[in-house]
Amino acid sequence: MENTREIFQIMTRRFGLLNKSCCSAGGIDISLIQSHILYEIDHQHKPSVQKVAEALDTDITTFSRQIQSLIKMNLVKKTPDPDDRRVYVLSLTTEGAFVAASIDQQINAYLNEIFSQMNEFEKDTVIRSIKLLNDAMAKSSVCCTSPMG
Amino acid sequence: MENTREIFQIMTRRFGLLNKSCCSAGGIDISLIQSHILYEIDHQHKPSVQKVAEALDTDITTFSRQIQSLIKMNLVKKTPDPDDRRVYVLSLTTEGAFVAASIDQQINAYLNEIFSQMNEFEKDTVIRSIKLLNDAMAKSSVCCTSPMG
DNA sequence: TCAAATAATTGCAAAATGCAAATATTTAAG
DNA sequence: CTTAAATATTTGCATTTTGCAATTATTTGA
Predict the structure, then answer these.
(1) Least packed by Cβ within 10 Å: which of A65, B13, B103, B129?
(2) Each residue of B47-105: pLDDT tens digit?
(3) Are B34 and B72 contacting, i.e. CB atoms less than 8 angstroms apart?
(4) Is the CA virtual torsion A54, A55, A59, A65 positive or negative?
């Protein structure tokens, strides 16, 4: 258990680099944070501004401005919620969905390349392990439980 | 393979949150980036300013200033390299080493809590899987190979 | 011996951050 | 009902962070 953190540190940093480098799609440059926002909007069901900000653990005022940029870039749409007019619902524009899909594709291509170095059994084991880990983290009381399914 | 990215995204974001929340030690508040810098200095052998900046994929000028803050906080020391006087070698002060160890401990405590939900076999499998993953990523040509062992 | 290369720092202007306050709307209590 | 408290989002503003271009100091190689 001594160097457990170390292997996690290496892993998460590599994925961080991956995300960092994977932020250009169709001539549009996207910051790392913007990429995360697009991903999150894409994966939540009609999320409010607050929901996405929480999921990404970002200050709501900062997030509000980040959304403004994405709207200016025509990647995100903000629609008033008819049930509660304080709330704005976020969604991707056609262009935003395209960019998100493109980034997704780039990252999956990288993951596929990584997994191509393993046999089927190893690959299954690794994927099952990560799911196990995610479940365990979701149950943990110490940290980081609240957002994300 | 469809949702492979998704499980990685969840995992890395959870660890990101963990790091974010684990950045206070002995009354000293540390930013996420500062925590990564301390970790990296601690794990490299007499690294130069440039080496650490590269490992963390940070712009060298930004990094130079981050080091300046850490020196002001008395967590990092900068020593001229006798072999090449353009170079400065970074190391942790006693206090910096203490802070780094404390953060390490907090993160390991969290990891232990997570693993306590698994049996020995699962735990071994998960750890072996992550090592496998790290090796595969290190070999990959697509992305993110250069820094880090 | 001197021009090119390298390591690190600084100037500066642009971008990101987050607290406090403002706005708009909803909820709940009397 | 009416109105005060609560909630969702946005803006004002001051601070911090960022990164390109230029600078300094040193080393390397022709």
Answers:
(1) A65
(2) 999 999 999 999 999 999 999 999 999 999 999 999 999 999 999 999 999 999 999 98
(3) no
(4) negative
The span from the first CA to the last CA of chain A, in angstroms, equals: 27
Nucleotides of D under 7 A from a protein CB: 7-12, 17-22, 25-28
In this structure, of B28-32, B113-117, B140-144, the range with the lowest mean pLDDT score is B140-144
How far apart are the two ends of chain B, measured CA to CA in Å?
27
Domains and CATH numbers, chain A: 27-139 (1.10.10.10)
To the nearest 10°, the Cα dihedral for A138, B110, B132, A17? 80
A143 touching B, CB under 8 A? Answer: yes
Whether A81 sits with its Cβ under 7 A from any strand C atom: the answer reads: no
Which of B17, B22, B57 is facing A57, going by the closest CB pair? B17
Q: Is the CB of B84 under 7 A from strand C?
A: yes
Question: Which one of A114, A118, A123, A141 makes the best mutation probe of the B interface by having the most chain B beta carbons within 10 Å?
Answer: A114
Locate A57 and state its tokens.
Answer: 């653990």
The set of strand C positions with any atom below 7 Å of a protein CB reads 6-11, 16-21, 24-27
Q: What is the pLDDT of residues A42-67, one digit of tens each?
A: 999 999 999 999 999 999 999 999 99
